Structure formats: structure tokens, C-alpha cells
């Protein structure tokens, strides 16, 4: 590699991430959007520096021993080819022009910084929804060169005060050692970045789903205090509660992300529906038993039939007696 002349391997990239906020977490798409200033520094010993220039000692365009140049000058300078693992979208921030800058330091280090909004994929499991928690990694490294050629280091800054309210609690962490390298068929590559812990806020689900459904189940048990003879009132109460729980279940299913099996809130609502359905079936059994207990031993038809049979039998017996006497 010609760009590694006069530099012993491995080559080093130094990343700095100034994270403004996590702007969005999409459960159904399993993606996360991050607004940040993305910075990378690298050493190019081939640069020829005029150490006696007055710009190094002045602080007009930045700190001393640094000079700002136009980002368009990168076409004349070697720069690394980078890859963000799991990248879905890379958006450059613009006002009047692209928010980016290049600084050349006196020690021949080049620093490039860019305002971006990055969307990355994040593998999420929703079997415990809405009691779920997820871990997402932001990893960046060299696109071409393996870890034998390129190593990297990184640091991040995250100010939680600027974070907008989302449905998760957000915590930033350093990348664990096992995630500082990426193994691909073409080789093993060094990776740098940070790790994000997402823990879902549960108060909304507690107030909107768990508490009302629990109250509906308890209300169905109160119906046991109503006399079984009051059929319209008791039946209307149980059927209404059953239909309301079915409606809550359908509403939750529409909002819930896809899971590999029945998630936690679905299981809870299914149990609630089964309890109300059980109360409804219990009342049906009570009505059936009451109907059997109140059923007369003889029906009207059997009574009339017996009466007419007895009336026909008596004349026949009387006629037979008179005949024998004669």
C-alpha cells in the first residue's frame, strides 16, 4: 500500500464522536437514528509542512499548530476508506453548505469532521415486550484494510440534556472487547465506536393496559354477587367486559413490534380474557342448573294424556261389570 510509506504497521485511525441525541428508535424496522458530529484523524507522513509559516502560531481559524482548510481539498490528500457496520442511512447535515471541516496539524495529522444523521440497524428481541431491553453497537472501521494493517481508537461525548424524550431510557457505554473486531469472510477488521443500552419506559403501558385490564377482571368477579335471576344485568356486564378486553388486545397487537412468540403483554391480556370468559361460562352453567331445578316433574301434555287415559278406562270397566251381572 503506497499510503503506508514511512509508517510502520499497523496504521491508526482516531475517531471522535460528539453525539447530540438519539433522534429516533424504530421498533418495527429495528433501526436507530443518531445525530452527531463524526470526526476521524489520521497521520500522513508524506505531507510537507512549512513549519516557519505564521499560521501555526496564530489562532485566527482554530487552535495553535492547526490550520483549517476547505473540505474540497481532500481530493488532493489521501483519506481512509471507512465502513459503518449495519449502516441503513448516512445523511449529511447542511445549512448553506455541508457542515464539515478539515484541519491539518503541525505534526502532519489530518482531522476531518462532519455533521451527520446516521441510521443503523439494531437487532432487537421483543419476546419480553414491553418489559424489554436492547443493546445496540455503533461500529466503524476500515473498509479495505484488516486489523493487521489498520487499528483504531475512539472516544465519544454525549450530553443527555439535549436528548429529546423517547420511549426508552438511553445509556452510552464503551464497546466491549468482543465487539472491537468484526470477522468477515475477507478477514478480521478493527472496529471502534460505542454501545447503547435501551430500556423501555413502562409507566405508559402500566396505566393504559395493565391497570385497566386488571380492573376489568376484578369487575367480572363482582358479578358473582348479582343474583343469578337478574339475567340481563349480569349477562350484559360480562359480555361488555369480554368485548372491551378483546378490543384492548387488538389495539396492543397493532402497536406491538413483531416477536418470535407471544410476548409478555399479549400473554397477560390472553389470561385476562380467559378469566372473564371463565366467569361468563360459570354463569351459563348456573343458569343451566337453575333451569333443570325449576323444571316440573310432569309436563302439561303428560298430565292431559294421563287424565284422558283414565277417563276412557273407567267406562270400560263399568260396562264389563254390568254385562257380567246381566
Automatic annotation (TrEMBL):
Transmembrane feature ranges: 205-226, 235-252, 267-290
Domain Neurotransmitter-gated ion-channel ligand-binding: 10-182
A GO term from the CC aspect: plasma membrane
Keywords on record: Cell membrane, Ion channel, Ion transport, Membrane, Receptor, Signal, Transmembrane, Transmembrane helix, Transport
GO terms of molecular function: chloride channel activity; extracellular ligand-gated monoatomic ion channel activity; ligand-gated monoatomic anion channel activity; transmembrane signaling receptor activity
Annotated Neurotransmitter-gated ion-channel transmembrane domain residues: 209-310
PROSITE patterns assigned: NEUROTR_ION_CHANNEL (PS00236)
Compartment annotation: Cell membrane; Membrane
Coiled coil: none
Lineage top rank: taxon: Eukaryota
One family name in Pfam for this protein: Neur_chan_LBD
SUPFAM superfamilies assigned: Neurotransmitter-gated ion-channel transmembrane pore, Nicotinic receptor ligand binding domain-like
Record membrane topology: Multi-pass membrane protein
Main localization (coarse): membrane
Family statement drawn from the similarity comment of this UniProt entry: Belongs to the ligand-gated ion channel (TC 1.A.9) family.
Name of the protein this chain belongs to: Gammaaminobutyric acid receptor subunit deltalike [Bombyx mori]
Originating organism: Lepeophtheirus salmonis
Amino acid at each position: 500500500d503506497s499510503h503506508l510509506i514511512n509508517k510502520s504497521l499497523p496504521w491508526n485511525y482516531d475517531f471522535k464522536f460528539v453525539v447530540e441525541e438519539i433522534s429516533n428508535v424504530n421498533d418495527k424496522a429495528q433501526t436507530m437514528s443518531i445525530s452527531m458530529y463524526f470526526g476521524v484523524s489520521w497521520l500522513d507522513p508524506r505531507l510537507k509542512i512549512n513549519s516557519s509559516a505564521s499560521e501555526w502560531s496564530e489562532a485566527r481559524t482554530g487552535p495553535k499548530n492547526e490550520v483549517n482548510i476547505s473540505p474540497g481539498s481532500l481530493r488532493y490528500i489521501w483519506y481512509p476508506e471507512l465502513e459503518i457496520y449495519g449502516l441503513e442511512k448516512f445523511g449529511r447535515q447542511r445549512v448553506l453548505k455541508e457542515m464539515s471541516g478539515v484541519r491539518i496539524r503541525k505534526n502532519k495529522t489530518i482531522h476531518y469532521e462532519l455533521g451527520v444523521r446516521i441510521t443503523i440497524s439494531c437487532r432487537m428481541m421483543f419476546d419480553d415486550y414491553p418489559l424489554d431491553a436492547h443493546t445496540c453497537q455503533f461500529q466503524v472501521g476500515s473498509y479495505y484494510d484488516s486489523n493487521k494493517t489498520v487499528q483504531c481508537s475512539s472516544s465519544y461525548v454525549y450530553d443527555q440534556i439535549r436528548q429529546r424524550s423517547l420511549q426508552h431510557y438511553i445509556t452510552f457505554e464503551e464497546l466491549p472487547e468482543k465487539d472491537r473486531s468484526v470477522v468477515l469472510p475477507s478477514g478480521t477488521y478493527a472496529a471502534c465506536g460505542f454501545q447503547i443500552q435501551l430500556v423501555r419506559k413502562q409507566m405508559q403501558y402500566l396505566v393504559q393496559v395493565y391497570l385497566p385490564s386488571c380492573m376489568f377482571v376484578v369487575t367480572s368477579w363482582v358479578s358473582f354477587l348479582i343474583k343469578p335471576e337478574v339475567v340481563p344485568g349480569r349477562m350484559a356486564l360480562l359480555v361488555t367486559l369480554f368485548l372491551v378486553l378483546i378490543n384492548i388486545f387488538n389495539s396492543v397487537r397493532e402497536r406491538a413490534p413483531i416477536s418470535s412468540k407471544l410476548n409478555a403483554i399479549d400473554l397477560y391480556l390472553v389470561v385476562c380474557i380467559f378469566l372473564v370468559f371463565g366467569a361468563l361460562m360459570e354463569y351459563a352453567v348456573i343458569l343451566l342448573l337453575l333451569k333443570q331445578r325449576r323444571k316440573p316433574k310432569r309436563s302439561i301434555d303428560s298430565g292431559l294424556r294421563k287424565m284422558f287415559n283414565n277417563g276412557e278406562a273407567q267406562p270400560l270397566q263399568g260396562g264389563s261389570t254390568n254385562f257380567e251381572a246381566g
